[in-house]
Fold these 2 entries.
Entry 1:
Amino acid sequence: MTDLGLPFQRNLWLGIGDLGRDAARLVVPPVAAAALLFGGWELLSRNGVLSARLLPAPSKVFETFVRSLGVLLDQAQPTFWGALAGILLAALLGIALGIAVSYSRALMQAVYPTIVFFQLIPKVALAPVFLLWFGTGFDANVIFSVFIAFFPVVVATITGLQAAPPSYERLCQALMMSRFRMFLAVKLPFALPHIFSGLRIGVTFAVIGVVLGEFITAQTGLGYIILFSANNFETALLLSAILLLCGVGMALFSIFLALEMIVTRFYDSR
Amino acid sequence: MNANATLLAAAEVASSAPSPGYVAIDQVRKIYNAGTRHQVEAVAPTSFSVKAGEFVSLLGPSGCGKSTLLMMIAGLEAPTQGSISVAGRAMTSPRAETGIMFQDPTLLPWKSALDNVLFPFRAMNRPVEPEIVERASTLLDHVGLQGFHGHKPRQLSGGMRQRVAICRALVYEPDLLLMDEPFSALDAITRDEMNLVLMKMWEEHHRTAVFVTHSIREAVFLSDRVLVMSRRPGRIIEDVRIPFSRPRGLEIGETIEFNEICGHLRSKIEHRPH
Ligand SMILES: Nc1ncnc2c1ncn2[C@@H]1O[C@H](COP(=O)(O)OP(=O)(O)O)[C@@H](O)[C@H]1O
Ligand SMILES: [Mg+2]
């Protein structure tokens, strides 16, 4: 067909073409890479190159996942609720301590070095100590989870409360605002993006905390299933449990992401 | 003639004794971190006064103590020595009748232009009645922000943000307007525009104003009086009356008189030797 010189039409088609090409550029490479990985894995497992005991085929894992879904979902409950309780308590304590430290120079000097110190030590090493102190129940896992998830939240809150430029403080003082009103109207909204990024790290830490606790207390939860199936060479079950654990982590992460999106709609401090 | 001089002297005493100006700075000195290793004398003992309705600029090199002096007038910093009174009352803490502007517009990013203008009412816990909203809208219209009342600061240019800040400083009808280099971060063309906007608003509202700047032309254009400060520790070393009648337009900047005044002020400013 001859070009009738209809730029509108041509641009429209070009536009759709661009859109399609952009989407393809985004979607095709990761999908292709994943297909290659899982396809290769499946092939190698079927040919017996990979030992079924060590690394069963993806199809086998999926089959086990579906078959054991009941048990897995049962065991996912304490892990999910434990991690949720962990991050919520860590958020409460972390934000409260962050605020307290930001408003008291004495507290800042007394507590901040300790916080930094605790951030540096590998907290995994302390899990057995927590077991000793708090027993082997659900609470012990939650407490350990809080302990791990707490630090990123405190640090983010302290950083966030310094985010409002000093001139805003001057303005608030000139308008004779109380420190409390200044906190609510200016400091806290400016701190929110920092606090939420602290919470995002905290969520993943809370899941790690609960699973570690389950490894050690070995009573219930996906962590326990992972430990148990590894000991019994039930690798397909192990991988299924890990898959569900990813799901738990993603569910918790999405909850906080949604909360963040709602809050930053009202307090967008860009 | 002698009698005349006596009369004048008497008038001076009469006018300076009971009400020594709307803003009266009396032997004010500021030393930061006094008594420590980090002690800095920012303002040397200084006295001056600003009459009601007068527009006065503080002009001086960077770091000479202009902001410090302004913050003391705002009641945000306490003088180390001396005293400051505004409208006859000694300044010990901020007062509700002072409007303030900084180099940074200090707008809340999550609030619209209109809500930012209304912020002082919320801050001071005063009711926002419909006539207050009306007043805020009118102010925004007068600084040329028709159609931008609902825009967020990030959707506004730097000059527009400072226009919002002007409205916010005026909305609660302060009797004193303090401005700390409000246009220093703007480009030269926007700065001229802002000077015109500020001039117009000031002519409409006629508040007493203290304006800090390190731009000689800006000071001369806006002010009734320009006070030149020495290098740190700052003190007033020159007090120049600017004779141009109001309303003023940017074209006065082209006159010989304007440029002579600028030249005189420039000669007084102590530049750091290289
Ligand atoms: N809070 C403070 N603590 C210590 N020194 C200060 C403080 N604020 C200002 N200074 C010092 O006081 C001097 C005058 O500062 P400032 O009033 O901001 O000057 P200007 O506004 O004229 O540039 C500078 O040397 C500055 O470093
Ligand atoms: Mg300054």
Entry 2:
Amino acid sequence: MLKLALKDLKLFVSEKRGLLLTFLLPIALITMFSLAFGGSGKKGESRPMTLVVADDDRTAESRRVAQELDSLKEFEVQVTSLDTGMNMVKKGDKAAILVLHKGLEDSVKAGASPPIEFMYDAAREAEIGILQGSLMGSLMGIVGMGSMEKSVVERFKKKNPDLDSAQLENIRQQIKENFSPEASEEQMEESQSFIKSTALVAEEETSPGLVQAVAGTAIMMLLFSVTSMGASLLDEKQEGTLKKLLYSPISPGSILTGKMLFTNIVCILQLTVMFLYSWLVFGLNIAQNIPALILMIIATAYACSSFGMFLAAVARTRAQVQGMSTLIILVMSCLGGSMIPSFLMPLWMQKVAVISVNYWGIQGFYDIFWRMLPVGDPTFLTRVLVLMAIGTGLNLVAMRLMKRNLLAIA
Amino acid sequence: MHFWKMIAVENLKKSYEGVEALKGISFNIREGEFFGLLGPNGAGKTTTISIMSTIVAPDSGKVSIGGKDIATNAMDCKRMIGVVPQEIALYNDLCAFDNLMFWGGLYDVPKAELKKRIQETLELFGLSDRQHDKVKTYSGGMKRRINIASALLHKPKVLFMDEPTVGIDPQSRNLIFEVVQKLHREGMTIVYTTHYMEEAERFCDRIGIIDKGEIIAQGTLDELKSSSKMKECISISFADGSSEDHHTSNVRSDLSKIVLRYNEAGRDIAHIDIKKVNLETIFLSLTGKQLRD
Ligand SMILES: Nc1ncnc2c1ncn2[C@@H]1O[C@H](COP(=O)(O)OP(=O)(O)O)[C@@H](O)[C@H]1O
Ligand SMILES: [Mg+2]
């Protein structure tokens, strides 16, 4: 089995054109997409977005929120009244505004969730995706901590009415320490339940554009290369080497497993090279969660390689594989967010996206580099599991079909 | 230990979508025997080899190799046999050495021993100096030689060769003949299919003549000759342009008698042609057609 995989690797290396397609083409595409999405791992290099804040509270606290947002590199804040702001959106001048409702200061003091609303033009969902994403995170940092701290203490009080004030102060202190902006990802994750926010952006942020460019392109290109590797089985049938393999005391199962092993190895190599390249050239912080990255690379490689095997199992010739694969890969990549980020797509498309390998892979890489989920996070692990399940399912079907068609010489 | 039946083939039948490729063929091959399967294209030679090498299942019938039924002991049988397929099957983008390392590596041969055998085999086939060139740069004859070499590295007890000399240069062909005869001398049991009757006549201890999925005759060359109703033919052409054929089973004694008789009759003989019985003529007499067409 290992011998079979090694032989395939040797053949793979001997073919310059294939190597070029596997490594250089994806690198070129990643570079292009990264530049197009303005992606760079370094924070602050992106242009600030204009953010209209409609201040209906007009208190010291609401002014503080607006100021703090303005002080962030991402945003240039423009303060207006609620009416003017709403008119801006209605007239189409702005895609969205951030409304600080009356009672903001009071609720912050009381530790309740602050009446902040994100009003947007539904027709321009695409534009506001990134704005909304980073806004939530920033807001969390500005108003979230104080109110969260209070509500945690409130909860403690309710649950343990007999706590004395010294103990409460102790708890308050601990929360302050633990939930500081440098708080661990796990704690940030916990804090999500106290504030309603869609995406939580941690402090050391990587541009989503870069993650998109790397993950999206890498997975799409992976699918193209596995197609060719899967098709090499069909070549072997045509060349007679498959038949010759069957003469030897190697079980048919091992022949197929050897091919899978080879495909997996190349996929892992390809993804690794892509991420190393993004690190070297675009400063993607690959070191921040290496266990999760390794897990995700393996899961993605496994799922993608099974796709190659599956195509080889349903097709009869390399030409057929290529014909089918181009269409399937383009559709999957489009749906799954390889070309356009998923969160910019209409909701129905995001739902359909779950059928594509790309979606799970890309989301997994977003989890690592953007959402900063830890390796043990259930959301992240679910994506790994889904990829593994897709891989196993397709591999099993492929094996079955191949034993019936491909390996049947008669 | 000598098997009287190193290979026993019993009543093999195989149909492909209505086409009867094998209609029930049987033969036995002794250990160390060189058995030729002679027949025209489409006779069923490759199908027979494929079944014997376990990669095609027969519709009915049995094959045993070294006393083991291939249906129940496929893996054991596979270890005993080496197969040289009719089509050249090599990895063109690997060099000859890498190809041999790969194909030989599929059997349990220790790596060092395998390397040694590869060098010996390359030497045998006269390809030592080209061993690190990619196979795709080889001529047809060289590829054929590597194709054969790749089946010998595990020193199989039994070697199946399916038309190993089709479409190659005379030099490669002679080299292959030499190797095959050497292997035979060393005691390997060989099944050799061909549609060249010269090859069958030249090497084979015993020959099975196969046509349309049936073995129509088998035995040693002498047995085939004597059992056939074919007689040798003395063909006499006269100076006046006419000619006469005389069929006989003993050319030597009959020739002088015939010549004497014509002399006495005063006829002027211009030319005498003796058509000997060979596999070609036997095949012709059995099937009414040429072996090669
Ligand atoms: N895979 C196959 N599918 C259909 N028919 C086949 C197949 N293999 C062989 N045949 C048919 O079986 C017959 C015997 O073929 P084969 O064994 O290849 O003959 P040979 O090797 O003597 O030339 C031929 O009529 C051929 O067309
Ligand atoms: Mg044949």
